[in-house]
Amino acid sequence: MSSFAGRMKEYPTISLDRFDRENLHAQAYFLSHCHKDHMKGLKGPLLKRKLQFSRTVRLYCSFVTKELLLNNPKYAFWEEYTVPLELESPTQISLVDEASGEKQEIVVTLLPAGHCPGSVMFLFEGCHGNVLYTGDFRLAVGDASRMEQLHSGSRVKDIQSVYLDSTFYDPRFYQIPSREVCLRGIAELIGNWISQSRYHVVWLNCKAAYGYEYLFTNLGEEFSTQVHVNSLNMFKKMPEILSYVTTDRRCQIHACRHPKDEEFLQGNRLPCGSTAADGTPLRIISIKPSTMWFGERTKKTNVVIKTGASSYRACFSFHSSYSEVSFLSKPFFLLLVTLEELTERVAPPVAGEEPQVASDMQPVGLNFMDCTESNGEEEDDNEEEEGQGDTVKNKGPKWEDFFTPEVLSDSQNSQSQSCCSVRSTSPSRATGSQTPELFSEEEETPDNNKGFSLSLSASNHSSQNLDSHLDDTLILHQDQNQTSDGVTLQSEQEQLSASQTSSDFDIPSTPESKAPQTADLLHLYRKLASREEVVLREEDECSSEDL
DNA sequence: GCGATCAGCT
DNA sequence: CACAGCTGATCGC
Known about the structure:
Helix content is 18%, strand content 16%. The chain is of the alpha/beta class. The radius of gyration is 24 Å and the shape is globular. The protein has helices spanning 45-53, 63-71, 179-194, 213-222, 239-242, 261-266, 322-329, 339-344, 378-381, 389-392, 399-403, 427-430, 518-529, and strands at residues 14-16, 28-30, 59-62, 82-85, 91-96, 103-112, 120-126, 129-133, 151-152, 155-156, 161-165, 200-204, 227-228, 245-246, 253-254, 276-277, 280-281, 283-290, 304-308, 311-315, 453-457. It binds a DNA duplex through loops.
């Protein structure tokens, strides 16, 4: 369940994915996707009442999310207060303090999150800096690098904080087979089964949540059929899904549900009650989509596993794996703090006081490059993200692509949409520097507004069985990384790139590479921090389109 | 009766 | 192996 409290330190007057408690006072609401654990308080009577008295408070989400939301009668009262936004199109929103009339402008951009239908990430740009709230997401390596809105020209935007779905942000979940691979495995199993006779049917044991639809559409397409589901209502305005689902039970692929579906299966019935046509018993297999992951060094395993005489488990994940998360977050990487602290810091920090670092902070992601099996052939079949793999290894670090002082497109680009010209509280930014203060100046207090923070928040889905460092929010503090423990120092050598844009920060791991030595990293970081040139690829310098 | 919370289950 | 979300018990209002 998501444990994100709903607010970001930079913009505490807006609430995301939480609608209870303090969030009742928000000036604008954002819903990343339509999963219940991100809708806490959304049907609360207090909130409903507040809306009726407000002229300015609105809920912003994608069109699809609005549709799914309003499909549930309990949320129907949101109809007139919900503003759907197009993907990837920056929209200015006024945050109004209705008591004082005070107004603040903020620009929000919705980015596809790949978690479930309608799911988005929110990029906010305003006078308190740029922040990215990912919500839950499943993005493959390379996806984020293709998102124009995260870039200014050829550079990654200066993003102050990333509020990140950390569900699988643990090395244990190093790799989760890609959607394509999982789909292929499932389709093969289904194909082999349903081709045997019309009485051979498949039951997809899916949970009551949005997110399996792409499975239905792809299988529907592959087998020229429709998938039986309980209801079509929510999809009535989504033809691209609607055409692949049906309430007609006479099909071979089912994803219908019933509270007692396991019992039904025992009795050789499908959850919809179907049992036999013209007296011939059905031959039913069940496939349960569930997350399967592979460690850094784990050999590949089949994405479909037989768990019983007629039951299977198939790999399926709504969330990005550790490596996918790492690649996404890398450019923004710096600080980890607990969510509790983050919340505290919504209030002014105590001057001169060191923010408290989570005691269980881990050097996340340190062993990346070391990964992979040794026989070089599995890269390709394992869908390793479009074979960028081999283009990377001999290239120099591209860390500076994101963080060199020269890079500065931001002041021209994103600023133009912001309400304030330049941050006054952040001198280095005021001058246009995007250098993350890897070695923060001593005199600076760990101010909220300064430096980067990677807030692993939004969810502690996996906290139950994992070590505490995974519990919801972790922020990696910039002041930690000069220590020799390697904290955060993992990132830069993966910034290798030979790809088309300098901002292609999503690079698959390189089989031959070794984990960097701490000493080397320190050396490199010191150079970077002192703005020495480390490796520079001229051709990728800012292009004129920035302007 | 309703909401919030939690254990249990899947 | 998780997740998302239900059901049902309990408690407070």
